[in-house]
Amino acid sequence: MQKYEELAKTIVKKVGGKDNIVSLTHCVTRLRFVLKDESIADDEYLKKMDGVVTVMKAGGQYQVVIGNHVPDVYQTVREVAGLGNDSGEAGVVKMSAKDKFFDLITGIMLPSMSIMLASGILKGLNTIFVVLGLYAMDSSYYVLVNGIGDAMYFFLPVFLGYNTAKKFKMNHFLGMAIGAALCYPALNGVDLTFFGYTVNATYTSSVLPVVLIVALAAPLERFLNKVVPDVVKTFITPLLVMLIAVPLGFVLIGPLANLVGALLGQGITSLIAFNPIIAGIVVGGLWQVFVMFGVHMVILMPSLMLLMGGNPDSFMPLIGSVSFAQTAVVFAIWLKTKDQKLKNLAFPAWISGIFGVTEPAIYGITLPRIKMFVISCIGGAIGGGIIGFFGPQMYTMAGMGIFSFPGLISTGEAGMSGLYQVLIATAVSMIVSFAATMALYKDDVEVVESTEPQGVDIKKEILASPIRGQVLPLSTISDSAFSSGALGQGIAITPQEGKVYAPCDGTILTVFPTKHAIGLVSNNGSEILIHLGMDTVKLNGKYFETHVTQGQTVKKGDLLVSFDREKIIEAGYSIETPMIITNSDDYLDIIPMEQTSTGVGEDLLTLLV
């Protein structure tokens, strides 16, 4: 990394210093900064310095284009700026109250999401293995696998304590210690009496309590760090924080959650007696909110007591379709989104949701997109209302998600009727949720400010053809690295002449030593690779001549490369020439023009962002 140290130091200095850097990431060719104040960055100096191709600003990011060696420069810049491996933040950018709220939620939940997804799927598989007869529910295999899958959720406050502490900029391990205290067995579900006041609360698998306690602990820690002498600060500060914040959390949050849950439970019981349809709508629509605030277990207690006593329950069926409404929303998002990162997150989330584990779906997918969360609540309300109309009962304790259905089967006169009724309600709630999401979901796009009355909300860039020739779908060419789309989306051309021109105004990123390929970035940010022929790297530059150099600014139609088409074919090489967008993930869609031949300068690719 030493070879890039001077470059990194200059970049950090010219973007305004390390105190001006909020976060730093990188893509294929560029450093992507979020700066407190972009106006103090020296754009012109950076554009002209050796080692930097150009500077661009887009999507709230200050982008320093480096080239293919950007990962090495990125690591050195992080070291020079003191960002470390775990730091993405060195300051605060202005955000609206809504953005701050969702930034807090995603910052707390997303870092642990992959483990939550894996754990949820594992719990579902464990139940499937029992159903398939691979082992019994009382076997050691089931107990072990269930423990592995359940551990993440049981000790969720520990994980969230770490994440919340990170967001509130306090000692991460102190946040974990607070979460661990909330999970300590001797403190959960038992009567604890303080000055004649008895508290009984359970915090395992909860979300909100640890977040609130760490939010209380963070300013307390900052205050103590200012007043406690340095010589004892390292252990006295966390001692006092835990001694003050955790008891306050137990004494105040636990009773409040219990009180809210008890009042909700009593209200819902009365509502069922008054009108089960309205009760189903209310419970089905709000159940996910109850789960988020950690009051759902208190509401469920009467039902659990009934079932454990061998008596049927009318309340639990009302929430039977809720997880499936949530799952249908996430499934629709998975189908519709073009954001590969979101697609990768949504896939295991909806699989996990089938088995009743919806935390990954809620916190990772729908809640940050509040309209989608509302749709899932509406779907749950519709399903709950239908179930309330039918009036089925739960007869035994069962699993979650699809494995809750056997609990609706009666050995008496009702038989399978309750199961059929809940299945009907579940199907309706899923169809409504899925259809609404497919109709209303849109990937987040950058809104383009315009003085035109109508305006537009999607950026569009059109790239011209760099070559005269026959147009081919990228998927049809012989090299699988290109045809599979692994290197990016685009199109291919079979050249009819030996000249390649710039498809847009931009800057040359890379001129390969073998002259068979050239990379450039457009002024709008598209990173373009034009690869002349298949395996032509083996020609080692023979029959090719380049007319531009790295870092050179070009205009649309400028000559980039010339080559001897006939000699290359005679040498036994294919001249299929792919033009791909190497930063395809930055775009909503990349649309080739519908034509079989093209001339230089004709519209060839439309990029939507």
TrEMBL record:
It is an enzyme of class 2 (transferase). One of its GO terms (molecular function) is protein-phosphocysteine-trehalose phosphotransferase system transporter activity. It is a multi-pass membrane protein. Residues 479-583 form the PTS EIIA type-1 domain. Residues 103-452 form the PTS EIIC type-1 domain. Pfam families: PTS_EIIA_1, PTS_EIIB, PTS_EIIC. One of its GO terms (cellular component) is plasma membrane. Keywords: Cell membrane, Kinase, Membrane, Phosphotransferase system, Sugar transport, Transferase, Transmembrane, Transmembrane helix, Transport. The active site is at C27 (phosphocysteine intermediate). PROSITE patterns: PTS_EIIA_TYPE_1, PTS_EIIA_TYPE_1_HIS, PTS_EIIB_TYPE_1, PTS_EIIB_TYPE_1_CYS, PTS_EIIC_TYPE_1. The chain crosses the membrane at residues 141-162, 174-195, 201-220, 232-253, 259-282, 289-309, 315-335, 347-366, 372-390, 418-441. GO terms for biological process: phosphoenolpyruvate-dependent sugar phosphotransferase system; trehalose transport. Its EC number is 2.7.1.211. It is found in: Cell membrane. InterPro entries: Dup_hybrid_motif, Glu_permease_IIB, PTrfase_EIIB_Cys, PTS_EIIA_1_perm, PTS_EIIC, PTS_EIIC_1, PTS_IIABC_b_glu, PTS_IIB_1. Residues 5-87 form the PTS EIIB type-1 domain. It catalyses: N(pros)-phospho-L-histidyl-[protein](out) + sucrose = sucrose 6(G)-phosphate(in) + L-histidyl-[protein]. The phosphoenolpyruvate-dependent sugar phosphotransferase system (sugar PTS), a major carbohydrate active transport system, catalyzes the phosphorylation of incoming sugar substrates concomitantly with their translocation across the cell membrane. This system is involved in sucrose transport. This is PTS system sucrose-specific EIIBCA component.
